[in-house]
Amino acid sequence: FGMYIPFLQLNCDLRKTSLFSHMATVGPREAVSGLAKSRDYLLTLRETWKQHTKQLYGPDAMPTHACCLSPSLIRSEVEFLKMDFNWRMKEVLVSSMLSAYYVAFVPVWFVKNTHYYDKRWSCELFLLVSISTSVILMQHLLPASYCDLLHKAAAHLGCWQKVDPALCSNVLQHPWTEECMWPQGVLVKHSKNVYKAVGHYNVAIPSDVSHFRFHFFFSKPLRILNILLLLEGAVIVYQLYSLMSSEKWHQTISLALILFSNYYAFFKLLRDRLVLGKAYSYSASPQRDLDHRFS
C-alpha cells in the first residue's frame, strides 16, 4: 500500500520528453547488465517524480482567482477552473487504480499454478486500496485553499432556475444578455424559456448545464470535504468490520496498514472541516446581520 508511481501524466506527452530517450540507445551488451538496468530504472523513476512534483506543487500549479466584474472574464475563469478540476480528478482516478493494481493484482502473476490464491480477497484489496488512495490523493490535490477558490468562482458565476412561464406571466421578464450581471430574483428570457436568478450575482449562461453543475458542487465551500469525510468514514467502518472478522494473518496485516493510513487521512479531513466550518460561519454572520437589518 502507498505505492504511487506517476508514470501516466495526463496533461503532457511522455513521447515528446527526454525521460526515456536514454533507454532507446541501450545496446545488447548493456542490456545484459543488471546493474545498468537498475540504474536506468532508478534514473527514469527519479526524473519522472521530479517532473510530477514540479507539475503538481510548483509555483504555477495552483490557479488563482481574480475578483473581476466582467461577466465574460468570470465565465472564462470558470471554464479554466473546470478543466483544471477535471484534470486533477483524472489524476486521482488513474493513480489510485494503478496503485491498487500493483498492490492487489500484480503479485498474483508470480503465484505458481499449483498454488491457490483467494480471488475474493484480491478484489476486496483492490477496492480498499483504490478508494483509500483516491481519498488521500484528493486531500492533496484538492486542498482547502483550492476548494475556497472554486467556491469564490461559483459565487461570482451564479445560477439560474428554470420556471414555468405560465406562473410568471404578470412579472417583468428581461431578455438575457451576456454582458450584464443579473441580481438575485430577476426573471430573464433565454432560448424561449424563462429563468430565475438564484445567486447573489449571476453571469452564467442559463441554458448551460456545465455552469449549473459547477455552481451546484462548489456553491457550498464544505461540500467536497463533507463528501470525503463520509466516504472515508464508511471505508474505516468497513475495514474495522473486516479486521475483526478476518482469520488469516496476511489479511490482518494488510487491513491494519490500510486502516492506519485512513486514520491519518480522516484526522486531517476532520481538522480541515472544523477549521473551515468555523471560518465560514464567522464570515457569514455579518452578512446575516446586515440582511436582518435591511429586512
TrEMBL record:
Q: Where in the cell is it found?
A: Endoplasmic reticulum membrane
- Any one Gene Ontology cellular component term annotated for this protein: endoplasmic reticulum membrane
The organism's place on the tree of life at top rank: Eukaryota
Q: Which stretches are transmembrane? A: 92-110, 222-241, 253-270
Give the membrane topology, semicolon-separated if more than one. Multi-pass membrane protein
Q: Which Pfam families match?
A: Tmp39
Q: Which InterPro entries does this one have?
A: Uncharacterised_TMEM39
Alphabetically ordered keywords of this record? Endoplasmic reticulum, Glycoprotein, Membrane, Transmembrane, Transmembrane helix
List the signal peptide residues.
none
For whether the record's keyword set contains Transcription, the answer is no
Keyword set includes Transcription regulation? no
Into which family does the record put it?
Answer: Belongs to the TMEM39 family.
**What does the record give as the function of this protein?**
May protect the cells against DNA damage caused by exposure to the cold-warming stress and facilitates tissue damage repair during the recovery phase.
Q: Which PANTHER family match?
A: FI21814P1, TRANSMEMBRANE PROTEIN 39B
Protein's recorded name: Transmembrane protein 39B
Biological classification of the source: Eukaryota, Metazoa, Chordata, Craniata, Vertebrata
Encoding gene (name): TMEM39B
